Amino acid sequence: MSVKQVLKMGHPLLKCVAEAVTEFNTLELDNLILDMLDTMEALDGAGLAAPQIAISKKLVIFGINQNPRYPNIEPIATTVLINPEITIIDEKIASAWEGCLSLPGMRGLVPRSTSIKYTGFDQNGNKFETFATDFHARVVLHEVDHLDGILYPERIMDLKNFGYEDQLLIDNEYSA
Ligand code: NI
After folding, report:
1. Is the pTM of this model over 0.90?
2. How far is it, in rounded angstroms, from Cα 87 to Cα 101?
3. What is the pLDDT of residue 172?
4. Cα–Cα distance between 93 and 71 in angstroms, integer?
């Protein structure tokens, strides 16, 4: 399939609540997922939500290999998550630097829950649930925010902790 153009912050589709996926095992859905995987890989992202490529559906992908760019981060298997629901397991919050393919070159310090459960459907429509902590939880929360029309700058507590990657002195980062 193909690498798609990623919408940037300001685009109306990034502010919309996405629609649930109602049909599985269709060529349209399978091709959308292939396009998203190609796009995430080409841009070296840790995750991608369908609205970022102008498809306002509740579908996200994420995954991260051992990567020298993210030395302190546990790998996450490549995951397709459709119609997700999040349950917060622990009220503990931690802040870490995030980026987003819709805000290229930018980073922000974002507080997120550190322990969650997420449920949803895989590419074939099978329901599953996964418990996630720390970085894994952060990536899922970031991606699922996209489905609610939320970008990470809306969650930054102090906008002094927002800026251009090449100007901020940070070492723990990713783009999703
Ligand atoms: Ni993002």
Report:
1. yes
2. 25
3. 56
4. 22
Residue 40: C-alpha distances to residues 2, 62, 100, 176 (Å): 11, 8, 11, 8
Which residues are known catalytic residues? 143
Whether 107 contacts 168, CB under 8 Å: yes
Q: Which residues surround ligand 1, an ion (CB under 5 A)?
A: 100, 176
Q: Exposed, middle or buried: residue 115 (CB in 10 Å: 0-12, 13-18, 19+)?
A: middle
- Ligand 1 center from residue 89 Cα (angstroms): 23
Contacts of 21 (CB under 8 A, 6+ apart): 29, 57, 58, 59, 82, 83, 121
User: What's the start-to-end Cα distance of the chain, in Å?
Assistant: 20
Residues 61/48, Cβ–Cβ less than 8 Å: yes
Q: What is the mean pLDDT of residues 153-161?
A: 97
Residue 74 above 90 pLDDT?
A: no
Distance 25 CA to ligand 1 centre (A): 26
35: left (phi over 0), alpha (psi -120 to 50) or beta: alpha
What the block records as the tokens of 142 is 């970031």
Structure-token pair, residue 152: 């990470």
> Number of C-alpha atoms within 13 angstroms, CB side, residue 134?
6
